[in-house]
Specification:
- The chain is α+β, with helices and mostly antiparallel strands.
- The protein has three domains: about 1-30, no CATH class; about 40-75, no CATH class; about 75-130, no CATH class.
- The protein has helices spanning about 45-50, 65-70, 80-85, 100-110, 120-125, and strands at about 10, 25, 50-55, 55-60, 75-80, 130.
- The strands form three sheets. A two-stranded antiparallel sheet has the order 1-2.
- Strand 3 (about 50-55) and strand 4 (about 55-60) form a beta hairpin.
- Helix 3 (about 80-85) crosses helix 4.
- The radius of gyration is 17 Å and the shape is globular.
- It starts with 10 loop residues before the first strand and ends in a 15-residue tail after the last strand.
């Protein structure tokens, strides 16, 4: 929840396909309800990627390709930016000293490789970019 948020929309949308503005950065109070089977319509991008039968959600074999097309609009997400967002509330181990170390942990924990620092699979290369969204020459953990 973000301090001083607009009334009824306390959560910020971290990634969006549109240019950020006050109209598209905020999510309503019931974020989980947005993904309830009764709230999802067949033409929505999420439904193009996820199979829903009753209350059971599953991923088809080609879910990465579908996610790239329907959720990412054929533009890879920065793995560095995503890993920073996902692990922002966790402590960083002393031996994880770079943004690449964080990406290695993310890739392993989400099944894109068999071991931290291991070879990344096809789905990772399709969905993510290793280009940082931080300034050139600026490393995530410079001040440690």
């Amino acid at each position: 929840m973000v301090k001083d948020h607009p009334l009824g929309t306390p959560y910020i949308k971290l990634f969006t396909e549109h240019s950020p503005s006050n109209k598209n950065l905020w999510l309503n109070q019931n974020v989980a309800g947005s993904y309830a089977p009764s709230s999802l319509r067949p033409e929505q991008p999420f439904r193009q990627v996820v199979n829903i039968e009753g209350r059971k959600y599953s991923l088809p074999y080609d879910h990465a390709k579908r996610a790239f097309q329907h959720l990412l609009f054929s533009m890879p997400v920065s793995a560095i930016s995503l890993a920073i967002v996902l692990y922002r509330d966790f402590g960083i181990a002393e031996d994880a000293r770079s943004s690449q170390d964080l990406v290695d942990i993310f890739a392993f924990e989400f099944g894109y490789t068999d071991q931290p620092g291991g070879e990344l699979n096809e789905d990772f290369h399709m969905l993510y970019s290793l280009e940082p969204k931080i300034s050139k020459g600026e490393e995530l953990f410079d001040n440690l």
